[in-house]
Design a protein that fits this description.
Length: 225
Amino acid sequence: MNLIKHVAIIMDGNGRWGLKYKKSRNLGHKEGLKTVEKIIEQTVKKKIKFLTLFAFSTENWKRPKKEINFLFNLLENFLIKKTNELNKNQIKLNIIGNKKIFSKKLKKILLNSEQITKYNKKLQINLALNYGSKSELIDAINSLKRKKIAFTEKNIDKHLHTKNTPNPDLLIRTGNTKRLSNFLLWQLAYAEVFFEKKLWPDFTISDYNRVLKNFQKIKRNFGNI
Ligand code: IPE
Ligand code: IPE
Ligand code: MG
């Protein structure tokens, strides 16, 4: 049986869910947040140590301003309300992606949540915000070049935003779309990939359990036989 240390998730399908049931993409995002909370709780229960969640990509800036503002408001309110609870549950929050362009207010909220939860050991959540795998790799390579460090696999690993995190064992993408959308391209080199038909707000604990169980049964070769 395969051990699970790290689960990565592309939480896709909020907008479609919202349009279908509430006539508003934004209400889909709000509903999707409930799934986030349930999945975090279940990940702790399963004693999985790392959970990386794709929340906003470098490409998502192409969306209408109103939707972008709604998403970041939702995130700010969530962190303001829930950081203490995350902390109480021994969960560490780590942001991956480029924070530079965020507002002063958001940067402060993110930093605060990271600081408060910094020493927690039960689960590390890597929350991907303004994250793009290609730009992460370019930054890593430039930084190695600047420091005159060799471009080896280990050194590149150490200069990615996911440094100190094992590579994901599995990737789940909800929303019935089979693509990676510039997510963890390097880190997912040997991950098992599960594309789920359900939209993210409809994804349940039992769907999650089923995927985890199926993952555990896979024969992982890593090039061997
Ligand atoms: C959530 O799903 C992912 C985010 C970028 C927040 P989407 O908003 O992409 O939902 P769909 O794919 O349009 O349904
Ligand atoms: C990927 O979903 C990004 C997140 C889940 C945050 P998208 O919905 O943005 O992906 P594309 O554009 O359909 O590939
Ligand atoms: Mg989408």
